[in-house]
Amino acid sequence: MRVVVFSAKSYDREFLGAANAGRHDLVFQEPHLSPATAPLASGAGAVCLFVHDHADAAVIDALAGFGVRGLALRCAGYNNVDLAAAARRGLPVTRVPAYSPHGVAEHAVALLLALDRRIHRAYSRVREGNFALDGLLGFDLYGKTVGVVGTGKIGACFARIMTGFGCRVLAYDVVENPAVRALGATYVPLDRLLAEAHVVSLHCPLTPATHHLIGAAALARMRAGVILINTGRGPLIDTAAVIKALKSGRLGGLAIDVYEEEEGVFYEDLSAAILADDLLARLLTFPNVIVTSHQAFFTHEAMTAIAETTLANLDDLAAGRPCPNAVKA
Ligand code: NAD
Asked: 101-291 maps to which CATH number?
């Protein structure tokens, strides 16, 4: 089957190409999927999409018109696809529900440790010959309370690592995970988690219920000096409210791998361009903010697993078989 792979980078060619082993005709296209780029899928049996590809109702109608019979997401989240529109047009949507939850959880831990121990500042200081410690004071994670919001696959891995550090883990989820309770974590209402945690890490999906979950009201309930980590999705956090809390000192630190307006910025080399996003530019001025470019998933193991599952999903789409990784509308 001919498959047009949108938002393709060199690493997509490498990993998808290796997993494909010649079974499908993969056509790699750099642009994101949008109404303007949908015609690139003309004649394809399926499209393969990533987090910044938009498959809204208009795009799905266009894809169906070009003969596309299915959408294979090479990611876990599917908030960028109008599932109802896809169902109306009879287009199955598949995803990669789990690849390496460990890699994402470990990245969240890396962000937390770097922020707490000021590794990002120490790294550049010593390279300039400044070996002073002023401004680098951190705190022990041992004995601290860590709040995990969303305790699915990634949240559970993160909670396990935090218990290994000797932290007390408070958890919040709409569905409790017995494996997380078995770690010794305590499920509490979100308000209590926010009030008690020294560190809050977000691992829930982006849904209407979780949009701006951390806004002015939540920030006001949080412990002064709290560290906030977001490897979930950008809009879980109200960026303007978080900037205010950073300016007032209420928020002790912020480390994000995802950002509300990351599209068009993350995954691109803009080092020679003027950053047009004033909120992102402001965030980058804080010494206690770390931003990574949606890279938490980016490990060898995860890329291999993503490619293999995506190709298996494409096999099912090509054969017209039900796919175990189909997303329900
Ligand atoms: P998962 O489905 O295993 O777990 C998500 C958990 O969130 C579930 O337990 C669910 O019950 C819970 N949840 C749903 N609505 C909630 C709400 N309103 N409040 C609290 N909890 C709620 O998913 P996962 O594999 O653990 O991934 C979690 C999220 O991480 C994904 O949705 C995706 O957005 C994000 N992610 C980011 C990266 C990255 O590279 N930064 C990579 C993979 C996934």
From this structure: 3.40.50.720
